[in-house]
Design a protein that fits this description.
By secondary structure, the protein is an alpha+beta fold. The protein contains twelve helices and 22 strands. Strand 15 and strand 16 form a beta hairpin. Helix 2 packs antiparallel against helix 3, helix 2 runs antiparallel to helix 7 and helix 8 crosses helix 10. It is rod-shaped, with a radius of gyration of 55 Å. The two termini are 68 Å apart.
Length: 639
């Protein structure tokens, strides 16, 4: 049960956040969710627009394929019609009709007008047949070859007799040794409409597609003007063949035609012409640059970006854009990191404050216990003699001063943390102030087996707040005694260097690593491997830095010559005391007694005279210069 309770307490302290943090986290998570949804919606909208653009481009490509096929077929039909019209326009020559040579010449001339050279076609041939089937067959060119003649006979055998009453020309497609060939059949009638002769010619289907297709791509655009704007030109030509690639296939998949350019693009359109069984398939492929340009133009109206611009050199404007769909996930990640860091910081602060309260409570309880114990003992009258009574009173006084120092430290820290600290400066003798602080710590050092070496001449003045200045020295001295080893000597030195009063506090402890010298000024930070066992609140150095900065002074940390840490403080010296009251000038100091009743003089000269304050005897001090300290055992100074 106890283990379970400990786990629950740990869970409550380490995991469960406070109500403000919980609300902040909920709002942040909601914002993250909204950002993710907005980014997802934008991405989906962008993908939808991209698909719509690709579909539109595919339709344009399909339209181009259909237009290309229709124009090639129209050109072929026009050639047949014009060739037949030329023959029909020739009047009959009784008793003979148009000769095969005349017909061949007419066909060559008609096709030459469309840039097609029949003389360069290996399957180019011409034939003539009387008006009766079985009549004599006349042939010129490729039709004299047996394999071509056989395909022509096959075409004539397949023609329906009723066709003669409806059409003047027709064409059929055959294969000659695997090569596609077209057979065109035309009729010659007399003025009465009677069929006189059958004429026909053959040519290579592949070569005809090649010549007709290249000429068509070079002369006639297959895409609408909006897609072939001059600013989108490819190379230096303004023609369709630079933007589109055409391929034509037979029903068996044999390639009839391929344009000069071929593109590896994912946008193409296909149209099938049912002029032959199985259909002729025409495929049009758009140039990748054209596709990307169109996509960018459509995407430009749908892009959601945040633009940043700035001027450079006064005349050049630079900038960059961040897409929102990229920015939102980035912000989401950053917000998530903010949540994690915020919660971690809150937990760290809560833990640090909890440790601070525990440490302060313990430090406050110790002097209170001492004061209560000796006070109750004195009330019961259990002291053996006057000397023991005086020793107990000294302990009560020392612990009360220590208790006051702790409370003062906490109050100053709270004011500094809230930025409410107000200094009441006056011209203060720094040597006197240091001597007073050291006097209160001699017995504490004795209890810990340490010595305090103070070299603090008087008559070095500075405009400071005595209360705050005393706390600075107290914290530095307490820090040195707390973390230093037994037997060490803590040194305090005050010297004047020009217009600066320098205070140096050195110890012989383990020192402070360079990596921790920035962190040590932060509140609630306790350094060292014994930080968890050494008493302390963790706010001493934070108070020191805050008070030093408010005085406009400086503080620095160095390595002490004999090991340990050395803190160096520098304050401005106050030269003039004109117009200030005597007590504020530091010129007058009332005599005071040491803890054992020893009289301590109120003045020092400005010369440096080292004074060693060490516990030679409880409550007494040994001075390096006997003239500075007067002992009058058992007597009090005259008021």
């Amino acid at each position: 049960m106890r283990a379970r309770e400990r786990v629950q307490r740990w869970w409550t302290r380490a995991i469960i956040p406070s109500v403000p943090s919980l609300l902040f986290t909920v709002l942040l998570v909601a914002m993250m969710g909204a950002s993710l949804l907005a980014g997802r919606q934008m991405a989906r909208s962008r993908e939808s627009h991209r698909r719509a653009t690709d579909e539109a481009l595919t339709e344009y490509a399909t339209f181009a394929a259909r237009l290309f096929g229709e124009r090639v077929f129209a050109a072929s039909s026009s050639e047949r019609t014009r060739a037949s019209a030329a023959v029909m326009a020739a009047p009959p020559r009784p008793p003979t009709t148009v000769t095969l040579a005349d017909y061949a010449t007419t066909v060559r001339d008609v096709l030459a007008g469309d840039d097609y050279d029949m003389d360069g076609d290996s399957l180019a041939g011409y034939f003539r047949l009387g008006n009766q089937r079985g009549a004599r067959f006349e042939a010129l060119g490729a039709t004299l070859r047996p394999e071509v003649r056989a395909q022509v006979d096959s075409v004539l055998a397949d023609i329906d007799p009723s066709f003669l009453d409806r059409n003047e020309t027709t064409q059929r497609h055959r294969l000659v040794n695997g090569e596609p060939m077209t057979v065109v059949v035309a009729l010659h009638r007399d003025t009465a409409g009677k069929v006189l002769t059958w004429f026909g010619y053959t040519f290579s289907r592949v070569r005809h597609w090649k010549v007709s297709g290249d000429a068509l791509l070079a002369r006639q655009p297959l895409l609408p003007p909006s897609l072939i704007d001059p600013s989108w030109r490819y190379d230096d030509r303004y023609s369709t063949d630079s933007l589109i690639a055409i391929s034509v296939f037979t029903p068996q998949g044999q390639e009839l035609y391929r344009s000069k350019r071929a593109f590896a693009s994912n946008v193409s359109g296909t149209f099938v012409f049912r002029t032959v069984p199985g259909g002729i398939r025409v495929v049009a492929t758009l140039h990748p640059r054209l596709v990307e340009t169109v996509r960018n133009r459509f995407r430009a109206n749908q892009r959601n970006v945040i633009a940043f611009t700035y001027d450079r050199d006064g005349n050049k404007r630079l900038g960059f854009e961040i897409p929102i769909e990229t920015l939102l996930p980035t912000l989401t990640i950053l917000l998530a990191l903010v949540v994690v860091v915020h919660l971690w910081r809150e937990r760290s602060l809560v833990r640090a404050r909890r440790d601070f309260v525990a440490s302060v409570s313990h430090e406050l309880r110790t002097p209170l216990a001492q004061i209560r114990m000796f006070t109750e003992t004195l009330q019961l009258g259990r002291e053996r003699d006057a000397e023991e009574r005086q020793r107990w009173l000294n302990i009560i006084s020392r612990e009360a001063r220590r208790l006051g120092d702790l409370v003062e430290n906490i109050l100053l820290f709270s004011h500094i943390d809230a930025d409410r600290a107000k200094l009441e400066t006056e011209r203060t003798d720094l040597g006197e102030l240091i001597e007073e602080v050291v006097e209160g710590y001699v017995q504490i050092a004795e209890q810990r087996g340490m010595r305090i070496l103070a070299d603090a001449p008087s008559r070095i003045f500075s405009m400071v707040d005595p209360r705050a200045m005393r706390q600075i020295i107290v914290n530095l001295l307490d820090n040195a005694l707390k973390y230093g080893p037994a037997g060490q000597t803590v040194s305090l030195e005050l010297e004047r260097i020009g217009s600066v009063a320098r205070i140096t506090v050195s110890d012989q402890g383990p020192g402070i690593p360079a990596a921790d010298r920035k962190r040590m000024w932060e509140p609630f930070v306790r350094l060292g491997k014994d930080a968890g066992t050494t008493l302390g609140s963790g706010i001493g150095l934070a108070v020191v830095r805050g008070l030093v900065e408010q005085h406009g002074a400086t503080i620095a940390l160095h390595d002490a010559p004999e090991g340990g840490a050395q803190f160096v403080l520098e304050f401005q010296v106050s030269e003039s005391a004109a117009g200030l009251p005597p007590r504020a000038t530091g010129e007058f100091r009332a005599p005071r007694l040491s803890a054992s009743g020893t009289l301590i003089s109120g003045t020092h000269t400005a010369a440096k005279r080292p004074v060693i304050l060490s516990p030679e005897r409880s409550g007494e001090f040994a001075a390096a210069d006997p003239g500075d300290v007067m002992r009058q055992e058992g007597e009090r100074p005259a008021e």
